[in-house]
Fold:
Amino acid sequence: MYLPLDPTDAAIVELLQADGRATQQQIASTVKLSQPAVAERIRKLEERGVVTGYTALVDASRLGKDITAFIGVSIEHPRHFEGFARRVLEMPEVLECHRVAGDESYLIKVKTSNTRSLDHLLVDRLRTIPGVTGTATTIVLSSIKESSHVHVDQPSDARAAR
Structure:
């Protein structure tokens, strides 16, 4: 559900996305509020589910994960969706999993160490899940942009989008 934000909350969300380690005092200074007012706004953004967590961004290649791949997974019948989802949630290589419209049932983003570990994930783990009828894999050669930053509409942007 779309939750419109006032300009101050929008600025706070943008600042948190840019630097999740920013202190409440730093944010308060930028948005021209007191630290307690910013703390309250952040608490309310968390309660509303706008801010869902805080995390560190890491360079996967420096952790030995040199292969990024997108895998389209075909499932024979929707009755297998729940079991598939449970199994995928247990796979640490899977960064994202989306049920999609199109030729496949799901689109998965994975990071693995090498092509051998990708092959093991495909053949021994994904394709053995009940209901999986096929996979289509695209290996990333280079990435131009990878981001988790979501643009926050300002009140004038939201009106224009309607």
